[in-house]
């Protein structure tokens, strides 16, 4: 079933914006694919609990990321529908290691 993210967009993006800001404090950009956003909206619609479902789904989806990013070299986390629906790890981009010559 296709669920429009338009009605949930503001609340969904509000939660995502908060968590994006939190991860940016660790120099990490957070990206959700359109499929991931659609999956979040569909799951929330199925739970029929409104904004609470959105917040819960987004927080559960980002649980691994919230532990992995702080203190790491991860600069970008991409959340896909596989991350939302199947618990797959996000796609991480890490900073290039600087080599020092001796």
Question: How would you summarize this macromolecular structure in one to three sentences?
Answer:
The protein has helices spanning 9-24, 34-47, 51-61, 63-68, 81-86, and strands spanning 29-32, 74-79, 91-94. The chain is α+β, with helices and mostly antiparallel strands and 102 residues long. The chain is elongated, with a radius of gyration of 15 Å.
Give the secondary structure arrangement, pairings included.
Blueprint (H helix, E strand, L loop, with lengths): L8 H16 L4 E4 L1 H14 L3 H11 L1 H6 L5 E6 L1 H6 L4 E4 L8
Parallel strand pairs: 1-2
Antiparallel strand pairs: 2-3
What is the overall silhouette?
Answer: elongated
Radius of gyration: 15 Å
Quaternary structure of the protein:
single chain
Low-confidence blocks of residues: 1-9
Strand order in the largest sheet: 1-2-3
> Care to count the β-strands?
3
Strand content: 5-15%
Distance between the termini: 59 Å
Please, could you describe this protein's structure?
A three-stranded mixed β-sheet has the order 1-2-3. The protein has helices at 9-24, 34-47, 51-61, 63-68, 81-86, and strands at residues 29-32, 74-79, 91-94. The protein has 102 residues and is α+β, with helices and mostly antiparallel strands. It contains five helices and three strands; from the N terminus they run H-E-H-H-H-E-H-E.
Key words describing this protein structure:
3-stranded mixed beta sheet, 52% helix, single chain, alpha+beta, 102 residues, 3 strands
């Amino acid at each position: 079933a296709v669920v429009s993210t338009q009605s949930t967009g503001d609340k969904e993006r509000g939660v995502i914006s908060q968590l994006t800001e939190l991860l940016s404090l660790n120099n990490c950009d957070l990206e959700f694919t359109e499929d991931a956003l659609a999956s979040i909206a569909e799951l929330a619609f199925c739970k029929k609990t409104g904004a609470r479902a959105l917040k819960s789904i987004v927080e559960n989806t980002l649980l691994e990321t919230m532990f992995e990013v702080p203190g790491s070299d991860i600069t970008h986390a991409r959340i896909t529908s596989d991350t939302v629906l199947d618990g797959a790890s996000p796609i991480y981009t890490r900073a290039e290691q600087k080599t020092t010559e001796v």
